[in-house]
Amino acid sequence: MARSGRSSQKSGARRVTLGILIFGALALIVAQSAPQISNFFVPARTTINDRIGAPADTSFWAQISGQAERERRIRELENEVRDLARYKAAAISMAERMEAYERILNLMGEPPERGVTARITTVVDGPFAQTVLANAGRLQGVEPGAIALNEGGLVGRVTQLGDRSSRILLVSNYQSQLPALGEVSGVRAVMQGKDRDRGVLKDMPEEAEFIEGERILSSGEGGAFPRGLVVGTVTKQGNDWIVKLAMREHSSGYVRMIAPPEIVEPLPESELPELPPEDGTASASQGAQ
User: Fold this and answer.
1) Residues ≥6 apart with Cβ < 8 Å to 195
2) How far apart are CA 124 and CA 220, in angstroms?
3) In terms of Cα–Cα distance, which of 252, 9, 256 is closest to 117?
4) Model's pTM, two decimal places?
5) Which CATH architecture has domain 116-258?
6) What pLDDT, in 10s, does the model give residues 88-106?
7) Domain ranges of the chain
8) Helix/strand/coil percent split, the chain, to 5
9) How far is CA 275 from the centre of its chain?
10) How far apart are CA 93 and CA 52, in angstroms?
11) What is the pLDDT of residues 158-169, one digit of tens each?
């Protein structure tokens, strides 16, 4: 009887000890989440975290709930915002210098962009016909031959224009022929549509090659497309240079259709209007008569 009494007392003591440990663990978890209590542990936690190299605000509860990962992402975004602010300041400074240089050199810049934003309503994909239908047309200000862009870059060119709709032939169409150049290498070629996401560069110079991974831009040759529109990035596959089209990477279902480049042909000298003399002597003599 005495032996069984002692064993029951030991088991009861173990239960009490286990209960105290469980209660202590729960109390620590609550202390990490309660600001009134967690502030008491901040100095000690900061010292320990400084020694092990972990962030001071990372707690056990933050790791479990995902708060630590969210705070890490917030810090990354804050750093990106600071970097972008520096780039923005540099871009503004460069733009101001470019405007000053253009005024000094009397340089004729690009004409102001006129455009209409529309939503893509129908997509026709196939091996021989890749076009999209946008819900804006002549009545909304879309011009014949307009250039279509999205957030990624060049989409295509308007081939059919209605009063309230436009059909756009994509640069991925095998019939599309786009004069292009490498942004870094400056090598010129003609991009032909290959499939839904890619194009292939042809008619290249024999002794020049593109740089792997560089951006491909529209060269503006031929007058169908403006110069400098982003087309995609180039990689070499076998003997072919393949362009991964940028329009597929960022597509929200909207396109912006801008006016095609237009350079007015100069008139023959015989058809030019007569200009008044600069000193105004002829007009004065005519007034005296």
Assistant:
1) 127, 172
2) 27
3) 256
4) 0.55
5) Beta Barrel (2.40)
6) 888 788 878 877 877 787 7
7) 2-65, 116-258
8) 40, 25, 35
9) 49
10) 43
11) 999 999 999 999
